[in-house]
């Protein structure tokens, strides 16, 4: 539809006006500016999180490296049980622990050949060999670790050392008897230090595994005060199985007394002062 007062040629040729180059650029800037602004805003919002994540990753890497260095130099934060022994002889079964004062036992009483034989059957201080992977897995691989001729690492189970310590303390309570029977040990200058070591080891182990079973009390014949009942029923490892397993894994030694001489180039660790 044409207007009556406008020229037909003007309407036909001047209907749209061409924008200048500067106007086109301005229009383009107006369209793209909000998108670029949003991208910049998102970047600055995310930047602190990205930086924190990078710093956290670096901190974690440094922490892991520090733990590895500490394990090599000072030992592990937590020493694990020997998995092979735990799997093959570490199962538990119900066992009654008798705590009555007058109960007879082959392990108690005045020292004699039978009592000594009973205690000797529990002792096993000989060494066994474990692989590098096994000693590393329990967290005790050091540069100073003793390597046997077989290529394995020298080790023994803690249970046998603890039984040995208890036997040393038992014998020390009968010192007059054992200083004559075993003078090579009980007349040495270090016997007191050895005994104190055993007391300290057993103290720490008892405190570590603090027994939470109840000791109950009863009235008993001939006693006018409450009498403690120390007996309990517990799940225990079968020590006979542990002993048999350890005996089967003992390493035979060609050295006198089973003691391996230290190589001249051995890497050593420092002992704490007395």
From TrEMBL:
It comes from the Eukaryota. The keyword Lyase does not apply. GO terms for biological process: mycotoxin biosynthetic process. Keywords: Membrane, Transmembrane, Transmembrane helix. InterPro entries: UstYa-like. Pathway: Mycotoxin biosynthesis. The chain crosses the membrane at residues 42-64. Pfam families: UstYa (PF11807). Belongs to the ustYa family. This is Tat pathway signal sequence.
């Amino acid at each position: 539809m044409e207007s009556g007062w406008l020229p037909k040629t003007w309407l036909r040729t001047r209907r749209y006006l061409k924008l200048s180059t500067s106007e086109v650029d301005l229009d383009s800037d107006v369209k793209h500016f909000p998108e670029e602004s949003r991208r910049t805003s998102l970047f600055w919002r995310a930047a602190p999180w990205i930086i924190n994540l990078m710093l956290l990753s670096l901190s974690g890497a440094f922490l892991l490296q520090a733990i590895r260095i500490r394990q090599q130099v000072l030992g592990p934060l937590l020493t694990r049980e020997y998995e092979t022994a735990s799997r093959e002889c570490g199962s538990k079964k119900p066992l009654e622990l008798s705590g009555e004062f007058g109960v007879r036992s082959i392990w108690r009483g005045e020292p004699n050949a039978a009592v000594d034989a009973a205690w000797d059957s529990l002792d096993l201080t000989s060494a066994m060999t474990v692989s590098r992977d096994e000693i590393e897995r329990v967290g005790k691989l050091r540069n100073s670790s003793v390597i046997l001729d077989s290529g394995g690492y020298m080790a023994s189970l803690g249970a046998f050392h603890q039984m040995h310590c208890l036997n040393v303390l038992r014998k020390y309570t009968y010192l007059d008897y054992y200083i004559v029977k075993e003078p090579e040990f009980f007349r040495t200058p270090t016997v007191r230090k050895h005994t104190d070591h055993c007391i300290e080891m057993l103290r720490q182990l008892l405190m570590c595994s603090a027994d939470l079973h109840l000791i109950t009390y009863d009235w008993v014949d001939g006693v006018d005060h409450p009498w403690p009942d120390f007996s309990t029923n517990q799940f225990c490892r079968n020590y006979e199985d542990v002993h048999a397993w350890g005996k089967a894994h003992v390493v035979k030694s060609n050295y006198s007394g089973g003691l391996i001489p230290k190589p001249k180039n051995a890497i050593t660790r420092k002992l704490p002062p007395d």
